[in-house]
Amino acid sequence: xxxxxxxxxxxxxxxxxxxxxxxxxxxxxxxxxxxxxxxxxxxxxxxxxxxxxxxxxxxxxxxxxxxxxxxxxxxxxxxxxxxxxxxxxxxxxxxxxxxxxxxxxxxxxxxxxxxxxxxxxxxxxxxxxxxxxxxxxxxxxxxxxxxxxxxxxxxxxxxxxxxxxxxxxxxxxxxxxxxxxxxxxxxxxxxxxxxxxxxxxxxxxxxxxxxxxxxxxxxxxxxxxxxxxxxx
Length: 232
Ligand SMILES: O=C(CO)[C@H](O)[C@H](O)COP(=O)(O)O
Hints:
The chain is an alpha/beta fold. The protein has 2 domains: 5-125 and 207-226, Rossmann fold, CATH 3.40.50; 134-199, ACT domain (Alpha-Beta Plaits), CATH 3.30.70.260. Helices cover 26% and strands 23% of the residues. It is built from 6 helices and 15 strands. The protein has helices at 5-14, 31-43, 55-64, 103-111, 143-152, 187-195, and strands at 22-25, 49-52, 81-84, 88-89, 95-96, 116-121, 134-138, 158-159, 161-162, 166-167, 175-179, 200-203, 205-206, 212-216, 222-226. Strands 2-1-3-6-14-15 form a 6-stranded mixed β-sheet, with helices on both faces. A 4-stranded antiparallel β-sheet has the order 8-11-7-12. A 3-stranded antiparallel β-sheet has the order 4-5-13, with helices on one face. A hairpin with a 5-residue loop joins strand 14 and strand 15. The radius of gyration is 17 Å and the shape is globular. 47% of the residues are buried. Bound molecules: ribulose-5-phosphate. Ribulose-5-phosphate (5RP) is lined by residues 26-31, 84-87, 97-103, 106.
């Protein structure tokens, strides 16, 4: 029987979820499987609360009966474990995220998580970040000027569109500029530079945030990598 590597990775991460935890719920087709599995365990009696990283994940969690808490009730750094996907992950577990458009909420939740566990299929593992276009969330006001600044930085931005026409609008009411910087040699520097541009809200570089990367493979095997040590 064919194995879905995303499901494999998502369900493996859920093994880390324990009673009493406040869990961050990621966004995307891999995080989906983790949320579904958390929902199954909640039905079986697992006692957790959760915060979602997108309206999509919130709706899914509600449909599965996962108890949610408002983010404003969460103390700084108070999320025990967040399980989320990624578009690229390098050898140091630096990430590109935001292919699903949820990068801002994902980064806020990640920043207040004691542990960020990334789940993905093996195609997301790269030597150096930069093949996947880097999503940058920008405010609609003056977006063409902001895109000009991204162009000047070498990002060759394109405005994310829905069905090739209307701008894609994030859960926060913003636009996404997908940027092609080529090989990103210094992800930390680029992350900072981008966020200094007026009009940029956040970008999809997650540097030094992920604790663990769980990769599912089509042959049914998993590999697990931790930021400081390697295994699996
Ligand atoms: O960052 C994200 C959404 O903003 C997703 O986690 C990322 O795009 C990976 O998605 P998928 O698991 O569907 O490949």
